[in-house]
Amino acid sequence: MKLPENKRNVPSVLTCMDGTEVTDWEIWVTKRRPELLELFKREEYGRLPDMSDVKLQIRVADSRQSDDILEGRAVRKTVEVLAVRKGIHFSFCFVVFIPADAVKPVPAFVTVCNRGIKDSDPARHFLSPFYPVETIVSRGYACAAFRTQEISPDYEEGFTTGFSRLFPEFVTDRPDDAWGAITVWSWAASRIMDYFETEPLIDEKRVALVGHSRGGKTALWGAAQDERFAMAVSSCAGNSGDALSRGAKGERLKDILTRFPYWFCKNYQKYIDKEETLPFDQHMLLGLIAPRLVYTSSKTFDKWADPEGQFESLVQADPVYRLFGIEGLETDRKPLPEQPLYQGRIGHHYKTGNHDMDEYDWNCYLNYADIHL
Q1: Of 213, 234, 240, 245, which one is the catalytic site residue?
Q2: Catalytic annotation on 283?
Q3: β-pairing, 142-147 with 88-99?
């Protein structure tokens, strides 16, 4: 297999830690993939605690269809997830919209909403392009969104609230590889998938996990861990998401770990100003999703997210898809703005604009899903 030019001197995605070269998909699945997944858990995002004594209950709290819900075009269901451990309770809700005319299971999008209620309003009083339910449903897809703040606060609070309150013993005795907020948010996304597996009008084999910025990092990490997701969609994820850490031309590890250390495990701190010593880089995160679908997007004015590093990450992940005998990225040349790449199992577009996710982005995601999902 001809490997792409290694412009940023990243470690090879197809070379195991013991030097074994990955020459077919079986070696990838049995050896390389598991060790990379372990590396990301131990060194970057952190691992969940033992969940064996956590009891989960998922129930539909409300289900209705009326003219005031997308003019009758959707069934809206409110679902509650309850987790109980040693008498401590934690719960969160999410809302699902399903096309009212669905006569067979439809594909779906799960959105990681790292913004306020205006960008995920279940009543649809606020029509935000960040989460255009009306467009998604009109295209024949179901959708659900959860707000990250309800799962784990997006500020440094010592892992004492939200999901983390289930494990008070970790407050004073916290291992260096213990979970960060991104791992907890990805856990929540998987609970929505649990529900989808029980919902007869949703095809759980055709579900995409979507996120923007920190939500994009979550979508990639969530899909890497949970192979039930058929597709990961990442908008402007940047550093520690889809952009390479080596040779970063925008945000660096020092920047992100100074502002948002709680997104990651403590072990990640040791690579500040030492990105070249990382035993992995973010192209390997994208490779963990293979042979499933992954779609990323970047913006022309979002230099902090390093659009060049984001695209180069896709180029370096492509060889994993080739192991499976399928096309990953259709070209190794970064596209011009508003020229989406739809053909391979790795999709991408580069849009004129700032750090955001809008209806143009969503229409591209939907176009790509129409072809592949």
Answers
A1: 213
A2: no
A3: antiparallel
